[in-house]
Every structure is written in C-alpha cells, then in structure tokens.
Amino acid sequence: MNLQTYRANLIRFQSLIALFILCLALSILSDKFLTVSNAWNVMRQISVNICISTGMTLIVLTAGIDLSVGSVLALCGAITAGLLKNGIEIPSGNLYIGFTLLGSVLAGILTGSFLGAFNGWTITKFKVPPFVATLAMLTIARGLTMLWTQGFPISGLGDTFLYFGTGWLLGIPVPVWISGIIVLIAVLITNKTRLGRYIYAIGGNESASKLSGIDVNRVKIIVYTIAGALAAVGGLLVTSRLDSAQPNAGMSYELDSIAAVVIGGTSLSGGRGSILGTVQGAIIIGVLNNGLILLNVSPFWQQVVKGLVILLAVIIDKANSKND
Amino acid sequence: MLVVEKITKRFPGVLALENVSMTLQAGKVTALIGENGAGKSTVMKVLSGIYQDYEGRIIFKDQIVRFSSPKDAQEQGIAIIHQELNLIPYLSITENIFLGRELITQYGTLDKKKMKARTQELLDKLKLSVKPDDLVAKLKVGQQQVVEIAKSLLTDSEVIIMDEPTSAITETEVEVLFGIIDDLRKQNKAIVYVSHKLDELFRIADNYVVLRDGKSIESGEMKGITQDMLIQKMVGRSIQVQRKPESVSQQENLITVKRLFLKHPVRIKEDLLKNISFSVQKGEIVGIFGLMGAGRTELLETIFGLHPFASKSEIHIENSRIIINSPSDAIKAGLALVPEDRKKDGLVLGMDVKTNICLTTLADLEKGGFLSNLKESLLSKKYIEELKIKTSSSDQKAKNLSGGNQQKIVLAKWLATKPKLLLLDEPTRGIDIHAKSEIYKLILNLADTGLGIVFVSSELPEILAVSDRILVMAEGAITAEFSSKEATEDAILKAAIPKSVYENQL
Questions:
Q1: What ipTM score was computed for the predicted complex, to two decimals?
Q2: Which of B330, B345, B371 is the closest to A194 by Cβ?
C-alpha cells in the first residue's frame, strides 16, 4: 500500500501541491506576496475568472466550449452600466425609462442568459460545432458592445453599485462572496443533481446518453445559458470594480477561463473533471499573474510563462490518466 | 515457422499471460480460442510488436526476435488484421493500402501509378471487384475487411493474424473470406485465426490453441475434436445448450407495429424501411434475423423514437395508440433498447458501474431534489447480484470490465426501468461463450416473467435456440415469418438474401 494510495493522493492533490509550492516560492522571492492585503487583492481579481470558469467547466464537461464569455461579459457589463446611468431614452417617442440598480443588474444577467441560450440553440438545433457557434457569438457580442457604448467607456456609476466589486462583507470582499456562492451551487449541481449527472454522461458518451432517454439538447441549452449568465455576473464584478464599463473589457478572458478549466484537470473531450479543480486552476493562474507582477517580470514574459504552465498541466494530466 | 516460448506478460496488478507457448506452422491455419479475458488479444499484441516488455521468447524462422514496434513486426513479416477496421474512410483504397509505406518516384513525389497498379493486382488476387481509386467510405464492411487483408498481403507477410474477421460481415462475404484464407494457406502462409464462432473454426482451421485465464491450456489438431470438447477446454466446464420450452403460454398482445416506414438518410426519396408490421405477445421472444444492411438496427431505433422526423408508423402498446418521438417517450411507454454497439451507444465507459446502471432511472433515485447515494447503491447492488456482474466493486469504471459484464450493465440499466418490451440488438456480439449462455438464460427468464422480447441477431444458431417466432428481414422489409417449430437454417437464410443485390454482393 501504500505507495499506490500515496501516489493516488499525490495525483489527486497535485494542483493544490503545485499551488502550495508556487506560493512558497513567491513568498521567499517577494516580501510583498505573503501579506493579507495582497491575498485579498488576488482573491478579488480571481473571482471574475472563477465566475466565468464555473460556467465554462459545465460546458467543457459536456465536451463543448464557449469562446464568447469575454465579449458577453463586456456587453452585459455595459448594458448594466448604461441602463443604470442613462436608462433608455427614445427621443422620437419622447419616452424615458429609468432603471433601478436591481433592474439594471437583472437586465445584464438576463442579456447574458439570453446570449448563452442563443449559443445553445444554434449548437443543438443547427448542429453548429460549439467552437464555431461561440466564436461567432464572440464577435457578435463585441460588436453589440461597441454599438451600445458607441466605443466610449460608461463611467461614474454611483457608490452603491461599486459595492459589488469593491465592498466588504464580514471581513471578506463581496466579489469573493459572490464567486464563492456560485461555486458552491455549481458543486451541488454537478455532484448531487440529475442535471449534473446528465452533464457528465453527455460528455462521457453523448449517444449512449441520448439512448438512455436523456434530453441531450435541453441539457446543453441549460448549460450554455448558465455559462452566459455567469459571464454576465463576471461583467457586473468587473464594471463595478472599475466604476466603468469598458467597451473592450474581457478581451481574451475566454483563454484564461479555458486555462483554469484545463489546469484544474477537466478533460476538453468531456465527461471528466470538476468545479473544484477549476477553482484551483483559477487560483493558480491568479497567483501566477500576481507573483510575476510583484517580481517585476515583463508582461511579455508573463504570457510565455502562463502558456508553459498550461502545457505542463495538460502533459501531467495526460500522463496520469494513462496510468489510471 | 513461428514459435512462442513461455511468454509471460504482466500489467500493474494483473498477470495477463503466464507461460504461454504455441507453435504456428507454415501453410496451416491455427485457431486461437478462449473466452474474453483469456489473453487472446494480449498474445496478438505481443506477436505484432505492440507490447515489447514481456518475459519469454519468440522464435521466428529459427531466430529469436523481439519486435520493437508494430512497424518492425510488419517489416519482418507479421501482419495483423484487427477486429476494428483500421482504415481511413476518406482516403482511397490505394492510399489506405500504402499508408505509411508509400512508393516514391526518383523525384521524391508519390509514385501513384505504381501504387495503383500494385493495388489492382492485390484486389484481383482477392477477387474484389472495386477500383483502386474508390474511397473506402463507399465500400461495404465486408469489402473493407478484404482491403485490410490486401494491406497485409502487400508486405508479403508470412504470418497473418486475423482477429474476429467475420464479426461484421455476411454469410456470402464469409465464404469469400474463407476462399481467400484457403489461397493464403496454399501459399504457405501461417495464419492465426481468432474467433468466437466455433463452427467457423471447424470449417477453416487446421490446428487449435486454447487459452484460459492467461495460460495456454492445450493445443492440437482440429481433426477428431468436437465443439463440445473445445467449449469444455475453454471454460473448464461443460455448458448445456439452452432451448426454449415449447410455445408461449399467454396470448396477450403487448405491442403492435403497423405500417412502419423510414426514409433513407441519404437518398431521401427512397425508403430504408418499407411497410413493416408485426406484433409481440407478452412473454414472447421474437427473433429478427437479417444480413448486414437489412435494416434490423434501424427498425429497433425507429420504434425507440430515434428517427421521429424521418419515419411514420402506428404503434399500439397494450391496445392503446402510443406516439413515440424520442427515447424518453419510448421509455415512458415501457420500451427498452439494448443497442448493438455497447461501447458506442450503451455505456458511458469512463463512468463507474453504479452510475451507468442508474442513468436511466435517476428521477426515481432523488431525495428532496438531490440524488441519493444510498438509493443508487441499493439499485446497482441489486442488479450486480441478480445479473451476476463480475466487478471488483460498483465503483469500478465500466471500461475495465469484460465485454460480457459490460453487456450485463447495459441490460441492468434497462431492466431498472421496468420495461414491458425489451429490444435487444445483437446482445451477444463479441462476448464469450460463457457470458453468452448466461445472457440467453437471462432472456428466457425475463420472457417467463411476461416481458416481451425482440431479439435481433445475425447468428442463426442463437436465433433458432432462443426465439418463439422468427421474422426475417431483407432490404428494409420483412420477407418471411417462421414459428420456432418450422424454422430451419436454410429457409431463414434463403429469405434473408436480398434479391436485387445478390449479384454484386461482393
């Protein structure tokens, strides 16, 4: 025994171990890393990626992918910000509709859900490969963001709104609360509900799932809708933290998100992986980003390092699943 | 020609082969037989260079050899034809045959002319009337099998290993294959023939080697040995052949299918299934026989709601009209489908036994909106015991089980839905004799409890043994119906052979 059990445990906790070593190294190399304020800072930054990546994990578990999360995030943030600040004005009709805080936030999340559902619809109804369908949505949503904002940031959104991104509750940053609750719900869904089981089954073998009476299309649409909604929550957090909706917000966030999913051990071919793995993946990327900045590594090198870490994670994962 | 001496192959925690020895002679067909998991495929993988780390030695043409890769084995004259065809559908026959060993002109470009000519030679030799430029995707399965053989002949292999070559082809194609094997034998090749179909082995093999639990149990000449003796050697105990007791007791109508049509997926104007009507009584086993492409699988799929937009039919279950537009409708109506390809359509291989068994009935396994681990465990435990599924635990992944046990998982997940009618599509394909007889027994028991069963198979003996009534399909239509008393192999086969395409079958 226990070499085997020992090994199995090592594999199970490999990303945690990697994270621990990473933190240890950074705290030796930089005296600014291991401080309370830096820790909260990192957590706050990560929470956006965790929101997005939770949805992404569900999609990847069904053997799909969502490239549109970054643009959807930007559009939803902009819609919330725009409605909150300006409402809707229709000059010809001499009509003005004002939005409350809650109303604008809900409108943003509804927009995200709708775009996600649209992704799911094209993927299931017209059999468009997820890669292509969401790539199309990536540019559609970005274009809509530009149209909505006319290319200018929407800033000055009021102190109450800033609470989402910068506030504290019981000594913990609000975005960490939000992403934490989302993760909790997603863990429950994946481990304890029929929907979760169906997600894994579809990723593991779609045709066997279909024959087992699972409504594969419905599950997929639900999953893409959830991912869209979570991207919108991410947009809310980003907009609130900056007190501004940037038209080019969320650029290449899909890549960080996919990286978190993959580093967390979820297989891109579906059926294998977990939400908690993704959380670990997101933390590793966040700590890495933060550490490289603290160490004054050039941003160009940061990208190279991040890419290498992703490669390494997948190679280790492959080696492990071979021995499985 | 080739001697295998005391080969032992270990996997982590498993002894796959233990002191296996065998001798292959030139100009002879050696049958390699054994139940699933007996070590046949491991032997083949050692011989063809896929596994390099084994104990013992292989002596090939009086020299000790140790192949470093499949390519190495191939170059030295050992070819293997795998059970799953390893052809690339959208390349031509020529391109497939020369894949990885293309002929090059002096300018470094592909010598297409020469390759095409060589391919034509091979095709002629194998009496396959297709063109070298034809895409493999357009060939019938049987023809693809012959292309695989052509591939192995290209390198002038001296040892040819065939793994279940007839598992996907029709009787006529089998005849052609046996003709080819006969020719190869005359050319002094050593042939290893692996098959579950014992009657085939008696027709084609000269020698046999029996493997059991990773050991070579016995070898000898086929002459003078009987099927029962072989079975006994394989399983280490004798099995009685099952027979269904005479006729069904109840005459209660379970399902009636009327005027079922299915459009052809490619040629929209044609019908793939033409005006099919039949019924099944409670407790009755209806066997459906047909050759490859007769439409048996499509018939089951259509009834099960997999082609709602391309089909029309009228289905009555227990005398009320039922509309089935999806598998979940079918399940609600009391149908269950055990698909032909259990790995592709039956199981989620990466999931454990328990999860697979519970997949069809999750709605019943909830407690307060969440899945109940206890209920799942109880359900899976029940079926593991009832169906005698051999697994180390219910948490074992489905892919680690043998074919027979995998098939039992598929049966379990469908029995869990408490079906009224069980549609079985080739339920014993690729599983060993022992597991087969267990599955026959199970089917008979289920019918005795009042379940209606539709049993699709391309193996005549099992259809004859199990069915109360036999329907024969050819070219998308039912061409004959026999009661179990009046059915004979000849009559069934005659009805199964398509009239229109008989000439260009191969």
A1: 0.81
A2: B371
